Amino acid sequence: MTSERERRLEERNRLLEHQLDFLRAELLHLVHEREKNVYSAAWLIFRPLRRFEAALVDAATPLLRIFSRETAAPAVESAAMEPAAQGETQKPRRLLVDVTATARRDAGTGIQRVVKKITQGLYRDPALPIPVIAVRCEGGRLFTCEAFVAALIGGTAGQDREIEIEPGDRFFMLSDSWNAFEEFQPVFSRIRAGGGEIVTCIFDLIPVLYPHACHEVTPPRYEAWLRRALIESDAFLAISRTVAEELADFVEETGLPHRPGLSIGWFHCGSDIADGAPAAPRPQIAAAAAGGAMFLSVGTVEPRKGHRVALKAFEALWREGRAARLVFVGRRGWFEEAIAAEIRGHAEFGRRLFWFDDIGDAELAFLYDKSAAALVPSYAEGFGLPIAEAARRGRPVICSDIPVFREVGGAGALYFRVNDPAALAERIRELLDGRATGDPSAVSRVSWAEAAHRVAQVIATEDWTRSLP
Question: Which pLDDT belongs to residue 75?
Fold first, then answer.
């Protein structure tokens, strides 16, 4: 019988092979594009400019590396040497929710969606266990975000006002703070001096657990942020129990320094994406949902999301004569040139294969409602929002068999072996033929209002699930 250790080693090897195949496809695509450029008339015109550009890059790169070392490295060292002084800890009395990065620039990312939905839910909840104020940091001082909040809940925005730190304040780092942690140092000091605590929201550990799934600049930035956050934070609040456990295990295994008694808790993201009945979609959206059974895959086009796994599974189904349709929804991310070219250059593109990168909530709700099932073939996630969103709208879900998807999908989702197109194709056949059915009611389907309430409840009552020595 295969031991658990051997099984994990086999799955790790499969993941590495999958990652190599993805990068190989990306490299071959880029080589092919280069060959086309070399023999084009445009290349003969622009080749001298490319040489000039390369010379500039070669000259600037050493300077950029020096600047990067000077600006990034001291942040971790100073954090480890000089954590903010702690006054006598007070009971939670007020929750200050940081939305700085999202209020400054809303790029529509998944993290910013969570920030907006949680903030909206907190402000609309009349029964919170603790008063809440959304704040932004500017020059080491905190200010309200009147226009930001008004855009979420309606009403007229007043003038932003400065917030004075009070004893017992809990400062919840909800928004993305990877590149601006130094800015918050004065805030941390005043929070601690008043007997308050800093709680950091953590969305996943993908950059340290799966660095090859990320853009090359992300893992070092993330690791520097995580080291600093571990020193400054009294608690972490993860978007799933799986991420909470991964964080605790990672800290213990790596021996990273952290504040004594570091608390860790979790909540589940919401699943409601649009109020009321979906609005009429654009004609091309409606056309994609018409015809054969439509399967919907939602997520940024990037290495870990499994777009090629889904495409290969459907190619097998199409060879059998199945009329099923595959619809991708998501913006382009990174290392996506090859798979983007495969999708847009596919013989079935526009017939049984579709990709939309500009869809809002209303059209997304329409596609969920028209789908035979949602597909979530990722090999690494922090939560798995499409699983919950599809289930809330009563649609079955077929997803990779990874721990966080088991947590979210529970007994209601249909699972297939991660990174295995043949296994995914078989699951789709079973669903189409009636040999397998999902149970959306057994999937996590909390609302954003419920998610926001749990955030406040965990912090206000200190309902943590794990504590590190």
Answer: 35
d(CA 232, CA 180): 14
Q: Quick one: pLDDT at residue 28? A: 63
Structural domains of the chain sorted by starting position, each given as residue range(s) with its CATH number in brackets? 4-80 (no CATH), 84-270+449-467 (3.40.50.2000), 283-445 (3.40.50.2000)
Give one DSSP letter per residue of 425-440, joined into a string.
HHHHHHHHTTS----G
| Cα angle, residue 250 at apex, residues 87 and 457 outer, rounded to 5° | 50
Q: What is the DSSP string of 254-295?
A: HT----TT-EEEE--------SSSPPPPPHHHHHHHSSS-EE
Across-strand partners of 336?
A: none
Measured between alpha carbons, how far is 301 from 314 in angstroms, rounded to an integer? 17
pTM: 0.85
Among candidate residues 464, 413, 422, 467, the one with its CA nearest the CA of residue 440: 413
Contact present, 315 and 349 (Cβ < 8 Å): no
Q: Which of 220, 234, 148 is nearest to 178 (CA)?
A: 220
Low-confidence ranges of the chain (pLDDT < 50): 67-81
Taking only the tens place, the pLDDT of each residue in 125-159 is 999 999 999 999 999 999 999 999 999 999 999 99
Q: Tell me, what's the pLDDT at 41?
A: 57
Q: Could you tell me which residues are beta bridge partners of residue 442? A: none
Cβ atoms of 381 and 204 within 8 Å: the answer is: yes
